[in-house]
Amino acid sequence: MGRTKLSLALVVAAAGHGVRLDSGLPKQYVPLLGIPMIQRTLGALSICDAVGAIVVVVNSQDVEYCQEEIKLERIAKVVRVTAGGDERPLSVKNGLLALAEIGTYDLVGVHDGARPLVTCEEISNAVQTLEMDPSLEGVVVAVPCVDTIKVVDESKLIRSTPERRFLWRAQTPQIFRREVLMDAYNVPEDALRGVTDDASLVEARGGRLAVVEGSPENFKVTNRVDLRHAEQILAERRR
After folding, report:
1. Which of 11, 69, 212, 226 pairs as cysteine with 95 (C-beta 3.0–4.6 A)?
2. CA–CA distance, 15 with 86 (Å, rounded to integer)
3. Which residue has the higher pLDDT, 18 or 29?
4. Are 105 and 9 in contact (CB under 8 A)?
């Protein structure tokens, strides 16, 4: 018996307002080979057959800019640009609420707006993993950790060294069965503050999650070194 095909919608978190690339712009609007990074990210997602719809969450002060100036809603599959909150998890929650008004999808994923090098293969692999194993509630695109990790205390004294073969660096997208993620975010705002990873909310509820191996190229662009590296990879992909 063939696996059941599952539909997917994505929330793209791009509401950050920190300026960490010394450009005077929030990083999601910094040009990447001449095109704003958020447009690069959405372009990469919109060409994927597995993606049915995209909601983009931006800073409340940037909604008009994104609609009128860089015209995000003209990008294929972008169904809404909506205002975020003052922290990432609050922005994701706003995106999920907007998505619920638009339609029903089997799966809902969250992707960082500052990960423009994501590929359709990574998304398809995540979706197929959920299609093949109905017991899984979600999957996280991740890469094996190649560095040895040290757990330290507040004084930076080393307390333990986890076994590296069990450590993976979480990336995005993180994709879940719709009701699982909706329920995980259906909590008071105070319970969401400080959360940096969508999967951790589901983990806290006892959810059964798995990792799907991604690519080291799907890194989050946060500084000038990352930006140069991303431009090099994009240039190589054009060849």
Report:
1. 11
2. 8
3. 29
4. yes
The pTM of this model reads 0.94
pLDDT digits over 165-218, tens only? 999 999 999 999 999 999 999 999 999 999 999 999 999 999 999 999 999 999
Q: Domain limits at 106?
A: 8-238
Domain count, the chain: 1
Which residue's structure tokens are 């009128």?
A: 68
DSSP state of 218: S
In a domain, 61, yes or no: yes
- Cα 16–chain centre separation: 13
Percent of the chain residues past pLDDT 90, beyond the cut: 89
Would 1 be classed as within a structural domain?
no
Altogether, the residues listed in the chain come to a count of 239
Q: Is residue 181 part of a domain?
A: yes
Helix H or strand E encompassing 183: helix 178-185
Per DSSP (E only), the strands in the chain are 8-14, 31-32, 35-36, 53-58, 78-83, 107-112, 138-144, 151-152, 158-160, 168-177, 209-213
d(CA 238, CA 216): 18
In a domain, 75, yes or no: yes
Closest CA to 13 of 74, 92, 76: 92
pLDDT, mean over the chain: 95
Tell me the C-alpha distance between 211 and 140, whole Å. 5
